[in-house]
Design brief:
263 residues; alpha/beta; Spore Coat Polysaccharide Biosynthesis Protein SpsA, Chain A
C-alpha cells in the first residue's frame, strides 16, 4: 500500500525569538522573505515569541500582518527549546528548519541541507566549521575547548553541535523533542538563558537510530541584540560556557543512568 502524499508546505522555518528588537529592526524577516519568495516549493515561517520584554513582538506582529505564509506564536517564557518546540507543533511542513533570528547563517544555506533528504537522511544540521568569522579570539578558543571536551563524552562524529541552523523531518521532531529532559524540569527559566540543549537533542536523534548528516554552512556573527542580556559580553560568555559544560555532563550522566533507553 502506498504512503499518503504529504499535504501542506514542503519546508517549515521555525525562528525562536527572545528580545530580538535590533535584529528585527535591521530587516531579518525581510531577508528571509526575499529568499523564500523565489523558491519553487511551498513554505511557511513560524516565529515563536518567548515572551520578549522589548519591542520584538510588536515588530513581528506588524511584519506578519498581510503575509499568510508568516505566523506568530506566543508562549510563556520558557527558553529557546520551548520556543522551538512551540514552532514545531504549529509546523505543517515535511521538513522543519530551526534558524536563529540574527541570520548569522543566512537562510539560503538551506540549499546545502535539503538535497540530503533525497538521499534518505532524517536529520541534517549545519556546521560553522572552525573559522567562526566574527568570533573573538576568546570565543574561538572557548569553542574549540568545548568541542574537544564534549567529544570525549558524546557525539564524537559531530563537529559542531551548537550551530543554530538545524533541520529534520517533522515527524522525527515530533517524536524526539518531547523526550528532552529540559521539558521535565519544574523550574521555569528567567531572562536570557543559553543551554546546550542541542547536545541532548542530537544525542536523542542518534540514539533513536535516525540518519544524520552534518554540512558546513556559511556563518558570520550578525547578532545586534542588546536586550537579551545586559550583564556584559564577557560575563555572558563565561556564564554560557559554564551552563553548556554542565549540560554536556548532565546528558552523559543521564545516558549512564539509562534515562534514554526507551527513545
Amino acid at each position: 500500500m502506498s504512503q499518503p502524499r504529504h499535504v501542506g508546505p514542503f519546508l517549515s522555518i521555525v525562528i525562536p525569538c527572545y528580545n530580538e528588537e535590533k535584529n528585527l529592526e535591521r530587516g531579518v524577516l525581510e531577508e528571509v522573505h526575499d529568499y523564500l519568495r523565489t523558491q519553487g516549493y511551498a513554505w511557511e515561517v513560524i516565529v515563536a515569541n518567548d515572551e520578549s520584554t522589548d519591542r520584538s513582538r510588536q515588530l513581528i506582529e506588524r511584519y506578519v500582518e498581510g503575509r499568510p505564509c508568516f505566523s506568530l506564536v506566543d508562549i510563556r517564557h520558557g527558553g529557546k527549546p520551548a520556543a522551538v518546540w512551540a514552532g514545531i507543533r504549529q509546523a505543517r511542513g515535511e521538513i522543519v528548519l530551526f534558524t536563529d533570528m540574527d541570520q548569522s547563517t543566512p537562510l539560503e544555506e538551506v540549499e546545502k541541507l535539503l538535497p540530503w533528504y533525497d538521499q534518505g537522511c532524517d536529520v541534517v544540521i549545519g556546521s560553522r566549521g572552525t573559522g567562526r568569522e566574527g568570533f573573538s579570539f576568546v570565543r574561538r578558543f572557548g569553542s574549540a575547548v568545548f568541542r574537544t571536551l564534549r567529544r570525549l563524552f558524546l557525539l564524537r562524529n559531530i563537529s559542531d553541535t551548537q550551530c543554530g541552523f538545524k533541520s529534520c523531518r517533522r515527524q522525527v521532531a515530533l517524536q524526539v523533542f518531547p523526550q528532552l529532559q529540559f521539558f521535565k524540569q519544574k523550574d521555569r527559566p528567567t531572562g536570557w538563558k543559553v543551554s546546550a540543549y542541542d547536545v541532548e537533542l542530537l544525542h536523542l536523534f542518534v540514539k533513536a537510530g535516525y540518519r544524520l548528516e552534518e554540512v558546513e554552512v556559511a556563518w558570520l556573527n550578525r547578532d545586534q541584540s542588546v536586550t537579551k542580556d545586559e550583564t556584559g559580553a564577557l560575563a555572558r560568555y563565561l556564564r554560557e560556557s559554564v551552563e553548556m559544560t554542565r549540560e554536556v555532563l548532565r546528558v552523559r550522566v543521564n545516558e549512564l543512568k539509562g534515562l534514554y533507553d526507551d527513545v
